[in-house]
Each structure stands twice: as C-alpha cells, then as structure tokens.
Amino acid sequence: MGLNSRIKSLIFACCSILSIGAIAGFASSRQNEKICKKVSIKIDNEYNNYFIGDKEVRGLLTREGERKLEGLPNQNIDLKNLEKRIESHKFVKDAEVYRGLDGNIQVFVKQNRPIARIIRSDQDVYIDAEGNILPLSDRYTARVIPITKSALIKPTDRGFFKDSLGHSYLSLLQFIENDEFWKAQLAQMHIDGKGKVSFLPQVGEHIIEFGKPDKVEEKFKKLAILYKEVLPTMGWERYKRVNVEYEDQIICE
User: Fold this and answer.
1) Of 186, 51, 42, which Cα lies nearest the Cα of 114?
2) Could you write out the three-class secondary structure of the chain?
3) CA-CA distance, 4 to 11, in Å (whole number)?
4) Which end of the chain offers a freer environment for a tag, N or C, measured as fewer CB atoms within 10 Å?
5) Residue 5 lies inside a defined structural domain of this protein
6) Same domain as 186, residue 152
7) pTM metric for this prediction
8) What are all long-range contacts of 220-223, with beta carbons under 8 Å and residues at least 24 apart?
9) What start and end residues bound the annotated signal peptide (predicted)?
10) Number of neighbours of residue 87 by Cβ within 10 angstroms
11) 57 and 147 together in one domain
C-alpha cells in the first residue's frame, strides 16, 4: 500500500512538472509572437546628471534609426545586445532592457556620475567615482571640483587614478564628494610635481596645503576646527597659507 502511494505520488509529480513545462513553453511561444508596439525609456537622474537623454538612447537602440524596434516580433529582438549597445555609451553605468507582458520594450538606464574634472592644456576630462576617464559632454557641464595637475604628471587615457598610486587620490576625491561641507567649500584642487595636494577654497584668499593624500579624515578634522571655530572669529582674510600636512599641527601664515 505504501509503495503504491509513493508510485502514484511520483507519477503525479512528473505529470505536474510536464504540465508546467508545457504551459511555460506555450506562454514563451505566445510571448515571442507578440509585436513590439512601443519602446519606453526611463533614465535614472538621481544626481541631476543630464549627460544622456531619450534621443541618444533611442539612437543606440535603433542604430540611429536604421532598425526600429516598433513593429518587430519579440523573437527578432535581442535584449542582451540592446543592453550592450546602450552600455557602450561613456556616460551609461548600467542598462536594463526587458519586455513587458504586452510585448513592448522597457528600458532603464543608470547614468555614470563624474566626481571631478581634470583641466590642463593637454587634457580636459571628467573622472567618475571608480577613477574612469569620461569625456566632456555637449549636453551638460557637471558641477564638480576641478583638478589641475603639474606638467610633470603625464595625462593618460586610463586615468591617473586607476593605478595603485592614484587610488589614494581617488579616495580623497570620494571623501570630498560624500561630504556636503567640503564639497561646497573647496573650489579647486591641484596636484604638484611631487604628488602633493593643495586646495583653493570658495571663501577666503588662503591656499590649503594638504600634502600627500593620506590620513584624509584626520587632516579634514583639523581643517574643520579652523573653519568652524577660528576663521569666523579671526576673519576669513587673516591667513594666506594653511598647512595640514604634518601630524598633530596646523600651520597658518
């Protein structure tokens, strides 16, 4: 009796699996036969970036209008290939292309986010949060901290911030980007031939000599004391030079 029950249960389970498979196959077949009538595009704009718009995305999807998706059956639309096309754009960090139950195509685009801009005679580019080089855009100019670099530091398409040495500079930029006070306060960053960093502030005539991009939090804590407790009392024009390079001291002249 127990054996017969197990056999019946096994047969029932097999039949159920076959039935589900048949239904899924039928649904997939019907889905593939559906015609794409509309392409909907959503571009993530969390950081108020405007480097790519609906027109540019449609151009990437259709190869600049050569192959429109509207009117095509789903089986003739390669979703992964469409994602790769969109992600080939420098200002696209990630793209997701999928079809709805109605057979229409849905596109979601996440933009890349510049956190700084290198400006010098032989190089004018953005840097993103991962240290990648991004080109300038005709559509939009990002409000990020500009960086000038000594001529002794050669420009590179891979990015000065991608190697082991440059990672510390990238960490410094990430710290500034994530701190609302310093992001608003620092107007410009310079890297000299020895790799030392200095800043020009938005308020005041002084130069902030930061030194090498190490002990970042400690140095900014010292600067915060100066900016929040000393300069408001002494006056923002009091000093021409502020140095936080050395441990446990601030030099003001």
Assistant:
1) 51
2) CHHHHHHHHHHHHHHHHHHHHHHHHHHHHHHHHCECCCEEEEEECCCCCCCCCHHHHHHHHHCCCCCCCCCCEHHHCCHHHHHHHHHCCCCEEEEEEEECCCCCEEEEEEECCEEEEEEECCEEEEEECCCCEECCCCCCCCCCEEEEECCCCCCCCCCCCCCCCHHHHHHHHHHHHHCHHHHHHEEEEEECCCCCEEEEECCCCCEEEEECCCCHHHHHHHHHHHHHHHHHHHCCCCCCEEECCCCCCCEEC
3) 11
4) N
5) no
6) yes
7) 0.76
8) 220/175, 220/179, 220/182, 222/250, 223/250
9) 1-24
10) 16
11) no
pLDDT tens-digit readout, 79-102: 999 999 999 998 999 999 998 888
Q: What is the CATH number of the domain that holds 103?
A: 3.10.20.310
Task: Tell me if 79 is assigned to some domain.
Answer: yes
CB atoms within 10 A of CB 165: 11
Rounded Cα distance, 111 and 135, in Å: 14
Provide the domain count of the chain.
Answer: 2
Structure tokens at 91: 């200002």
Q: 16 in a domain, yes or no?
A: no
222 and 121 inside one domain = yes
Tens of pLDDT, residue by residue over 107-154, are 999 998 899 999 988 888 998 888 888 899 888 898 999 999 876 666
Instruction: State both tokens at 145.
Output: 């901290």
Residue 100: inside a domain: yes
Domain of residue 170, residue span:
114-252
